[in-house]
Amino acid sequence: xxxxxxxxxxxxxxxxxxxxxxxxxxxxxxxxxxxxxxxxxxxxxxxxxxxxxxxxxxxxxxxxxxxxxxxxxxxxxxxxxxxxxxxxxxxxxxxxxxxxxxxxxxxxxxxxxxxxxxxxxxxxxxxxxxxxxxxxxxxxxxxxxxxxxxxxxxxxxxxxxxxxxxxxxxxxxxxxxxxxxxxxxxxxxxxxxxxxxxxxxxxxxxxxxxxxxxxxxxxxxxxxxxxxxxxxxxxxxxxxxxxxxxxxxxxxxxxxxxxxxxxxxxxxxxxxxxxxxxxxxxxxxxxxxxxxxxxxxxxxxxxxxxxxxxxxxxxxxxxxxxxxxxxxxxxxxxxxxxxxxxxxxxxxxxxxxxxxxxxxxxxxxxxxxxxxxxxxxxxxxxxxxxxxxxxxxxxxxxxxxxxxxxxxxxxxxxxxxxxxxxxxxxxxxxxxxxxxxxxxxxxxxxxxxxxxxxxxxxxxxxxxxxxxxxxxxxxxxxxxxxxxxxxxxxxxxxxxxxxxxxxxxxxxxxxxxxxxxxxxxxxxxxxxxxxxxxxxxxxxxxxxxxxxxxxxxxxxxxxxxxxxxxxxxxxxxxxxxxxxxxxxxxxxxxxxxxxxxxxxxxxxxxxxxxxxxxxxxxxxxxxxxxxxxxxxxxxxxxxxxxxxxxxxxxxxxxxxxxxxxxxxxxxxxxxxxxxxxxxxxxxxxxxxxxxxxxxxxxxxxxxxxxxxxxxxxxxxxxxxxxxxxxxxxxxxxxxxxxxxxxxxxxxxxxxxxxxxx
Length: 757
Ligand code: BGC
Known about the structure:
A 6-stranded mixed sheet has the order 9-14-13-12-10-11. The chain is globular. Helix 2 packs across helix 11 (270-288) and helix 5 (126-141) packs parallel to helix 7 (179-188). The chain is α/β, with parallel strands linked by helices. Strand 2, helix 5 and strand 3 form a beta-alpha-beta unit. 32% of the residues lie in helices and 17% in strands. The protein folds into 3 domains: 38-147 and 160-191 and 299-541, Glycoside hydrolase family 3 C-terminal domain (Rossmann fold); 546-662, Immunoglobulins (Immunoglobulin-like, Sandwich); 677-753, no CATH class. The longest helix has 19 residues, at 270-288. The protein has 24 helices and 25 strands. The protein binds beta-D-glucopyranose. Beta-D-glucopyranose binds at residues 42, 56, 103, 150, 229-230, 349.
């Protein structure tokens, strides 16, 4: 299809019309030219296709579909290959349902445990979020349907989400909030991007030319279309100019007319409208020309796949005295309503109408299970009889497993949590059960960290996150050892909410949310502060044990244009087969910019038989060592020594080595009379220019009159001392303190320092 030719045949009104939706879920058709409508649908962990009476709040039911584990859980798998396969399954369902684009993945950074949508987001770490996003996009798009990576950008709270401005400095945005989008855009080429509701440093994402054009298209090479989040458009004309191609949902024609008027009044270049239409139609036809509605959608097979994936996502947080895995011959108590009706997805636009769900109770129906409901999910208080019944069940059983977590009302799209606690009735239940049976295990169903006041009184905790419609099957497999747990935390669980770095500022004041903790999000903060946490980033246990040895680097020294190859050997030292995630962190040993102690730059999930060992390989390039430099507005490596650490979690890194990385980029320096001595002396070229001046100054002070030592030693001592004393002095001070240096020399010197003399 010659899209440019097609657009050239469209009237201005038709073009403006194409730039907004026909209704909630369709782009417009232009019958006169044979342009078809195309449908988009929420996801991203399954389809929420709505046909009739569409709304986006989940009030009307959508078609029956399969709910795979949500992003908080899939991130815990640390397994991009598996997530790619999940994407392929979702892509097939889209083809079957004639959907051109799935609205996801959502890759916003988990800045605070309170964000109501954390269950839809991957991680507090941009590298992990980027890898998972890339994998799911590649999977879905391999089926010739598009994705819409969202919500671009800095949409890390729900509070005032449609008006709040996320205010962050350039480096924080580049190092923390952009990389997941950047990696996915560059590596997986999503067909579309969805801009967020919020403003960024005062400008709505939907009308932000820096965001939608300069960064997204010019820097990262994005070629698809940008759509608005639903209702995110404030000034439509500014949006077209900024690079927002499609407004969703329909504006009822109001904004289309504004586009037409703006073009006619000469306020908006028609070429920009053409461009938006071309981008939209490229994708409409890309789907239409590859549509395969005959693709089968085997929901039962996908349910089985959802169960397999869920089992690989669960994170074993505690397992004292090997209470897990459970023995199938023993009598086990399953306590808590979530055993029967699990919570496995969150509320809002991602909510899927499951064709079936399996709770743990049903999945374990052939085993010796005693069930007690324990609490009422909808109530905050636990009636005494319910607790008594649970205690009785716990006493009878060998092991008591409490299925607990957060009710739907606690975390959802549209609002944030106000605290990190579980419902009081559930905490009370866990305490009572733990008192009744020393072998108490807790299985958690939640989309974000919770406080665990009872942690020291239970033997085991299995974090199931919101693990999709087959969660019960997966939980039973892991609990009884059919699957060895292999999930790792994609976020830190702090001891208490107040420990979180965003705690003082989260939510903001009025419509301004300042991201004042800067790059110190999640473990970047807890590690720098050497704080105790409940469970660290990257952590998770297994029924077997692993040993990490043999860290090898391909070089002791590299240039920032080169790469460093890293090898680690990992061995299964326990008695059953299992998987672990070898994690690689890089830190700048000595740096001028204020940087985290370590940052995740590689991970590999690997399966090992008992006694087996394997080597895993990583490649680190410039980005692994770089920080965002505000002076050159680019990534930059500060020459020096970097630490390479490897192991099983951010706080279990037995292997450490060092590499020297040399920058090939010279930072531009512009010296003035206000430049301080220390900065000048740190620059070898400027230092060479400066030394004669220092000697001259010293001569004036008479320092060279000192007695003793060789001439060279004498000079070194006096120079060092002078340099130390003068560190924070501006250049102008050198002259005023230096007395006798003529003022004309100042201009000469500046020229030389700036390489002009
Ligand atoms: C959400 C998006 C979603 C859209 C369509 C919005 O409210 O923020 O994530 O894709 O609705 O349902």
